[in-house]
Design brief:
Strand content: 5-15%
Distance between the termini: 109 Å
Cofactor: a divalent metal cation
InterPro entries: HARBI1-like, HARBI1_dom
Subcellular location: Nucleus
Protein name: DDE Tnp4 domain-containing protein
Radius of gyration: 30 Å
Strand order of the largest sheet: 3-2-1-6-7
Order of helices and strands: HHHHHHHHEEEHHEEEEHHEEH
Family: Belongs to the HARBI1 family.
Structural class: alpha/beta
Length: 428
Amino acid sequence: MDGCDGDGPAVLSTTEKTAVAAAAVAVVRRFQIESAAGRMKAALSRRRQRLLLQRVLDAPDCITTSQAVVQLCAAIGCVLLPRATPRWWMRRRAGRTWEDLRVCNDATEDYFREKLHMSRRVFMEISEACAPHVQRQVTFYRESLQPEQINTYALTSGVRAVCDVTAAILRVYGEKISWATGVRKQVVLRAFLDKGFPNCHGAVDCTHIYVEKPANTPSENHFDRKHRFSVIAQVVVDLDLRVLDVFVGYPGSCHDIRVIQLSSLLRRAVEGLLFRGPPVTLPGGVTTNGYILGDNGYPPSEWVVVPYGGINQHPDEERFGTKQKVARGAVERAFGRLKGMWRLFLRTHMTNLESLPQQFTAVCILHNILLDAGIEFDENLLWEVDANGVRRRVDLGIHRPPQPVSMLTSTHEAHALRNALAQRMKHV
């Protein structure tokens, strides 16, 4: 700063004047930017209702049953958006289905059940529970969708939303798939006891999820016995069709025995983690801590009880086989309900083999949620009309073994358990 020799006022130099002017301009400019940002955010807030869901995909007003219930998994194999495209929850799309689902009148419940096969209450509960995991903040230029809109888009359009919604469901509802404990365990055990199987905890079976020929992997690995490419899902259910355990991901060429050996079921059974209840004594002094029911695709074991098999059966064996098949039929009914609602898993489709296990597991979780909510299943979903106009039952992807597997690996204890159960049935 330049000054006079005496007591005169100080004078700024040219450099200092330039710096002060630049600072003043910067302050004014920042104020203008912040004011503009505030006005834009206020405008976005006022226009929220009419800016939501600008059309990218022309979602139909009537979604067919093939697009049913929580179709967050129906986006498997969809083409990803170009890298330059904003994340899907920021995209602009028209209301249509979402706006229809927001309408609340006398027809609301029917509309939700037609579109999603669930009540509006159940849908909103799922949306609210997943909200912290799928909601995004409003940006400077765009508004993010609300959680229920994100879920609806995943349910009805089937784009990238599936990845985010699947992750949210697994994170929030992971405990929905678990081995029965406490009061629920007693209900499960009592139901199987009434069918003639004391201390039985569930029934196991596998279903094939048909896929297009996988890329970057040996195709013969996924080529199953029915000459289709598939991935195997092993599921354990109780008599209420509730999924207790699910294991997905191995290629369709794997045998059911191999799948159960690779799953955690075998390890947990051997380590005593599955069947912890008090033992039950059967005829002949045979005791069991617990077991599950399986078909002849599994060898008899101390924890998997299968039918006798064969042609010329003793009446006791035939009686046992009939009752075992009836009880074990819960797995097939569960597959029917699950695949009937999420019909994507009835069709051959392209998919990411890495994400398929998570997506199928998420559908099993939703299956349990709908059971808990008392949502009824329309049996007509188990039928379809083929290209020739003939009505036929849908293929649930259940591959029955052509003949019982070898029992060479079975133990004496395994046969003793089955024989004791058969003997007990004679006196019940």
